[in-house]
Amino acid sequence: MPKKNVMNDGVKNAKEKQGLDEVLRMPKGVKKPKNTSK
């Protein structure tokens, strides 16, 4: 995973944290694919 932007990296980090929160909140049967890093 090449780093494009330091700012982008921070945003990705925040988004991943949010995604983790969402996954923890969601029922175990429903899981979003972790393909947000494009």
UniProtKB/TrEMBL annotation:
Residues 12-25 have a biased composition (Basic and acidic residues). Residues 28-38 have a biased composition (Basic residues). Residues 1-38 are annotated as: Disordered. This is Uncharacterized protein. It comes from bioreactor metagenome.
